Amino acid sequence: MTLDIGVIGVGMIGREHIARLANTLVGARVVALADVDARQAEAVAAGLPGASVYPDGEALIAAPEVQAVVVTSWGPTHATYVLAAIAAGKPVFCEKPLAATAEACLSIVEAEIASGKHLVQVGFQRRYDKGYRALKAAIDGGVIGAPLMIHCAHRNPAVPEAYVSDMAIVDTFIHEIDVLRWLIGDDYVSAQVLKPRNTRHTHAKLDDPIIVLLATKNGVRIDGEVFVNCRYGYDIRCEVVGEEGCATLPEPESVVLRKDAKLSTAIMQDWKLRFLESYDVELQDWIEAAKSGRVDGPNAWDGYFAAVTADACLKAMHSGEVVEIVTPPRPAFYD
Ligand code: NAD
Ligand code: ISE
């Protein structure tokens, strides 16, 4: 069976996902598009034989030919579309964040539980990255003993002027929030944010870099650097320190060069390439699960937990205080 998909939002990652659904993955096709910028939607549809353009996301979700929905519009629009997909009983893959606030994420959790069907997956693609999977296998296999500390960094070479301080948490560090919790099977209990001296490459509305400190229920301490104007490349680092040893996220594959008296490997520049394979695996996995009425990847509860943690990090960043992270117990629906 081929899964007929409607995509809402044909911006940067929307076009990336549409291209992989159309050209790389199997078992699905894009049959419908919607974007507030209708001309962009028409332009993308021109390259997709048989795809229709709908005036808005709601009309796309209601269309009988759409069996499943991919939401890649701006973050503040996600909750409306995810709730509409749940109301229509259609599986929905929503790019991170699940919603702009923890409250909106909770309303999605409640609506999904009330529907009685597992329908929502959130686009935390790092769980599908082969490096993170190898790291998790080492931790789960007991190779390094119980995790005690995690040191990590999320560095982007540069960001546009519209990128402001809060985005370092809700747009960027949100990936660490999700993947580290998954990596060690633990939940967070507190957050603190430190602000080192700013780089001269930032602007008045962006503190860059920052260091986020998280503590987990099991007492693991995490320090995560977010540095989005690091200039030299797109660099994702993660070292888990355990009782018996340390495990480090592998570097992306690169030819080792011996040249001009130097031993070197390339550093990636772009998140789209760094996580290319994981986006493919993530969406292929979602297609297969959606056809069987399952959600195997990060679910609405994970999206909610990430949002609660992000809110605490924002509060910590604005206040300079250590902020407690409190969530209700996970509903049995998500066990
Ligand atoms: P973008 O600005 O390039 O594209 C967003 C698109 O949504 C635009 O075409 C815009 O016209 C459209 N849009 C806005 N409001 C809409 C509405 N109400 N209905 C329909 N379309 C609407 O942004 P982007 O970089 O593609 O990011 C989109 C989402 O994907 C964001 O939530 C972002 O955080 C997420 N994202 C995830 C990753 C990842 O690594 N998983 C990477 C990049 C972006
Ligand atoms: C972007 O939205 C992403 O999700 C990238 O993975 C991240 O590295 C970048 O900082 C975000 O802006």
From TrEMBL:
Its EC number is 1.1.1.18. InterPro entries: Gfo-Idh-MocA_inositol_DH, Gfo/Idh/MocA-like_OxRdtase_C, Gfo/Idh/MocA-like_OxRdtase_N, MI/DCI_dehydrogenase, NAD(P)-bd_dom_sf. It comes from Roseiarcus fermentans. It comes from the Bacteria. It is an enzyme of class 1 (oxidoreductase). It holds the Pfam family GFO_IDH_MocA_C. This is Inositol 2-dehydrogenase. Homotetramer. Involved in the oxidation of myo-inositol (MI) to 2-keto-myo-inositol (2KMI or 2-inosose). Belongs to the Gfo/Idh/MocA family. Residues 4-124 form the Gfo/Idh/MocA-like oxidoreductase N-terminal domain. One of its GO terms (biological process) is inositol catabolic process. Keywords: NAD, Oxidoreductase. Residues 136-325 form the Gfo/Idh/MocA-like oxidoreductase C-terminal domain. One of its GO terms (molecular function) is inositol 2-dehydrogenase (NAD+) activity. It catalyses: myo-inositol + NAD(+) = scyllo-inosose + NADH + H(+).
